[in-house]
């Protein structure tokens, strides 16, 4: 089992990892915490196309731009207040991945999601500065240090956390993974790392059926296909109460897939759009009540309606004062 934390890695390899993190440009140190920017991260490069081939693919490759457009149309967030991330360099990716793994990727995979990786890494910095951050993208939770899978070529969650350990000087992170699929990538990466606590609630009847990774989940909630909104939210409420009693993090990484929506061809759950908004509200309230910074990644979602649901949920978070678009700093204990 490969550990992204490198707790058992040779000292020289760990020193190299640290140097790469400290020399990275991804944290955009020129974005001051009191600036007019909101801690919402997006780049037009998130929206990908491959000469029309994306139309034959179940992944909605333009969903991120449509989320941004919906937020602007609603008057919540103008484009000049969004933080645009940098593209992750090869040295950045090598913090977690090996050269042999990166060389094995097809050219389309190398280009397509690399800016979203930069966005996920940057989001942790913004979350610590402002109490919350949302990357309108990211959440490639099937990718581990050693292998990709399920549309996920880069381990952005593992990268994000490794950067946070070194650059933000924190040592306790909770991953709340509520994508419909098991987050087997980050589970393998942090399975033996006591600094990371994983709560994963997923449909046990769909991909990836990773029984090795399951052993590393600190708190798993396995759902049946067809689970409806009320049961879903009840399971989540119980799970958050357990998580609160077990672990006190300094940062929450929230993987907020919308493939839990009723009708999603890959998630096979039956949660309503209103249920997704309530789910996100529960998680952000969980973080706010404990004064824990939180970053949200949008992860999976394979229907055209997902973009509107994500935007509506962000709008709801603002209305409920769970995020402050005007920015407000939260002290980290």
From TrEMBL:
As given in the record, the signal peptide range reads none
GO-annotated cellular components = histone deacetylase complex
Gene Ontology terms describing biological process? epigenetic regulation of gene expression
**Keyword Hydrolase applies:** yes
Pfam families (alphabetical): Hist_deacetyl
Keyword annotations for this protein, in alphabetical order, are: Hydrolase
Q: SUPFAM superfamilies from the entry?
A: Arginase/deacetylase
Chain ranges of the Histone deacetylase domain:
115-315
Necessary cofactors = Zn(2+)
Q: Which GO terms describe its molecular function?
A: histone deacetylase activity; hydrolase activity
InterPro entries in alphabetical order: HDAC_classIV, HDACs, His_deacetylse_dom, His_deacetylse_dom_sf, Ureohydrolase_dom_sf
Which PANTHER family did the record assign?
Answer: HISTONE DEACETYLASE DOMAIN-CONTAINING PROTEIN, HISTONE DEACETYLASE HDAC1-RELATED
Protein name as annotated: Histone deacetylase domain-containing protein
